Amino acid sequence: QLQLQESGPGLVKPSETLSLTCTVSGGSISSSSYYWGWIRQPPGKGLEWIGSIYYSGSTYYNPSLKSRVTISVDTSKNQFSLKLSSVTAADTAVYYCARHGAQFDYWGQGTLVTVSS
Amino acid sequence: DIQMTQSPSTLSASVGDRVTITCRASQSISSWLAWYQQKPGKAPKLLIYKASSLESGVPSRFSGSGSGTEFTLTISSLQPDDFATYYCQQYNSYLWTFGQGTKVEIK
């Protein structure tokens, strides 16, 4: 059974860079035609797709966040990562990683990242 | 960018009720529409994909329909476990967008 697990700091200071890693187990991140994506959910609000990386390494970003987002993959560790720069309080959210094609079928449990000094 | 609009935002219903949630896309997305259920503190769970295909393991009381710009999620007989928030999600041209959500509450 495929499992995804987010990890990274739970507290980030304003103007700094948020960095999260998603570790995939139960399957290879590079062996099939899937996208690996990041989605976030501010407290009490809806879901927002941040961006995704294809197993080949191509990246796709939400236009509203594109200037601040970088997603990368480390196939040797079966991990993919998110970097979001110049964060503000508006970036406080639960961040999920997920496997997807047209739809998101496997999700991590989510990790809360708070932006505060 | 394609915008997804769900209605209603909140729905009050009783166990056994037939419930319908609507999702409208700002332009045609063919059948690239999925539905998710989310409970507090949990990750979303995929229910329906490609507008009307039931994800494995999801009860048959859930069904989806529509194409183009208008889609519906129907729960044929609401069960206690179904009180949750539901999201639609579209895929088009390497962009993925979620609706704002519909909370199904106990009446």
The CATH homologous superfamily name of chain B equals Immunoglobulins
Number of strands of chain B: 11
- N-to-C order of helices and strands of chain B: EEEEEEEEEEE
Largest sheet of chain A, if any? 7 strands, mixed
Main sheet of chain B, how many strands, which sense, barrel?
7 strands, mixed
Keywords (chain B): Adaptive immunity, Cell membrane, Immunity, Immunoglobulin, Immunoglobulin domain, Membrane, Secreted
Organism (chain B): Homo sapiens
InterPro entries (chain B): Ig-like_dom, Ig-like_dom_sf, Ig-like_fold, Ig_sub, Ig_V-set, IgV_Light_Chain
Protein name (chain B): IGL c3502_light_IGKV1-5_IGKJ1
Question: Describe it for me?
Answer:
Chain B: This is IGL c3502_light_IGKV1-5_IGKJ1. Chain B: Keywords: Adaptive immunity, Cell membrane, Immunity, Immunoglobulin, Immunoglobulin domain, Membrane, Secreted. Chain B: It is found in: Cell membrane; Secreted. Chain B: Pfam families: V-set. By secondary structure, chain A is mostly beta strands. Chain A is 0% helix and 52% strand. Chain A contains no helices and eleven strands. In chain A, the strands form two sheets. In chain A, strands 2, 4, 5, 6, 9, 10 and 11 form a seven-stranded mixed beta sheet that branches. In chain A, strands 1-3-8-7 form a four-stranded antiparallel beta sheet, with no helix packed on it. In chain B, strand 4 and strand 5 form a beta hairpin. Chain B is 0% helix and 53% strand. Chain B has a single domain, classed as Immunoglobulin-like. In chain B, the strands form two sheets. In chain B, strands 2, 4, 5, 6, 9, 10 and 11 form a seven-stranded mixed beta sheet that branches. Chain B has a four-stranded antiparallel beta sheet with strand order 1-3-8-7, with no helix packed on it. Chains A and B meet through strand 5, strand 9 and strand 10 of A and strand 4, strand 5, strand 9 and strand 10 of B.
